[in-house]
Amino acid sequence: MITLASAVTWILAGSFDLAERWINWAALGEHFQLDEILFVLLVSCIGLMWFGKRRFAEIQKVLDQKMQIQHSLEKKHQEASELLQQNRALIKHITLLRESERNQLAGELHDVFGQYLAAIDVNASVGLQKTAKESPLFKTLTTIQESADYLRNVTRSKLRSIKPPGLDKVGLTASIEDLISQWLSSFPNLQLKHALDLDDESIDYDTSLTLYRCLQEGLVNISRHANATYIDLTMNMDQQGGTPTVCMRLSDNGQGFEANNLIGKGMGLIGIRERVNALGGEFALKSEPNNGTEIMIVIPLNAPL
């Protein structure tokens, strides 16, 4: 481009005799030394060239600094991404360990407590059959039988809360229906409306277990803290950017709280968020004092809808 401009200037200068014209014009202003202005222009050009070179060096230096900052940010971003992946893997591993411990505890409750309570009940029944109703022992055996029956019901209830009943066999929908039924039997004064539109075969076990535990924890939080009278639950399949997802929305009309003060509300909601994040899902919480609480969960699925 500079070469072309120089060539054009040369052609124009030669065509119009610019040098001769300049000499003739400068001669008219000899009193003002106009013919010496070329040297002034030359010095000015050299000065501008020097200034441009210095500015170019400064800009190059700033650009290098910005490139270093960008490289540092990219490195930090990569490290943060790796840490996030490791954190998700750790949370998933911890979750698996917790579920393994839950299953082990459930097995012990079923095999040990269940069998011994059944044996106590049978022995008490045999004793009652062989004891007269007027005997003081009859009342004692009756009390033992009632206590064993009560403990058996408590154990059965704890087993349901520790281990989802047949989640891998009957599917997520049936397990949630059972959870809701058991929960309503414990809190008959609460109204719970639910709508489930799920394809259980498309939802892997980890996702099903996460949704079940999140709903379980959410219902526990409502019963303990919300002071609500109405609960609404929806679960459905959806598509986000071509990726199949399962969505859960749990809301209540309770007293609510400041959503920014999540830590102050215990570890339950944080546990829900971490479980969802470990599967690459999204967790959203909306709550205001005296205006209820809403939990939104979206988890991507690997299996096609």
TrEMBL record:
Organism annotation: Methylophaga frappieri (strain ATCC BAA-2434 / DSM 25690 / JAM7)
GO cellular component, one term: membrane
InterPro entries: HATPase_C_sf, HATPase_dom, Sensor_HK_TwoCompSys, Sig_transdc_His_kin-like_C, Sig_transdc_His_kin_sub3_dim/P
Entry GO MF terms: 4 iron, 4 sulfur cluster binding; phosphorelay sensor kinase activity; protein dimerization activity
Catalyzed reactions: ATP + protein L-histidine = ADP + protein N-phospho-L-histidine
EC number: 2.7.13.3
Domain Histidine kinase/HSP90-like ATPase: from-to ranges: 206-303
CDD domains attached to this UniProt entry: HATPase_UhpB-NarQ-NarX-like
Cofactor(s) the protein requires to work: [4Fe-4S] cluster
Name of the featured protein: Oxygen sensor histidine kinase NreB
Cited PANTHER family: NITRATE/NITRITE SENSOR PROTEIN NARX-RELATED, SIGNAL TRANSDUCTION HISTIDINE-PROTEIN KINASE_PHOSPHATASE UHPB
Enzyme class: transferase
Superkingdom of origin organism: Bacteria
Keyword tags: 4Fe-4S, Cytoplasm, Iron, Iron-sulfur, Kinase, Metal-binding, Transferase, Two-component regulatory system
Record has Lyase as a keyword: no
Functional description taken from the UniProt entry: Member of the two-component regulatory system NreB/NreC involved in the control of dissimilatory nitrate/nitrite reduction in response to oxygen. NreB functions as a direct oxygen sensor histidine kinase which is autophosphorylated, in the absence of oxygen, probably at the conserved histidine residue, and transfers its phosphate group probably to a conserved aspartate residue of NreC. NreB/NreC activates the expression of the nitrate (narGHJI) and nitrite (nir) reductase operons, as well as the putative nitrate transporter gene narT.
A matching Pfam family: HATPase_c
Subcellular location: Cytoplasm
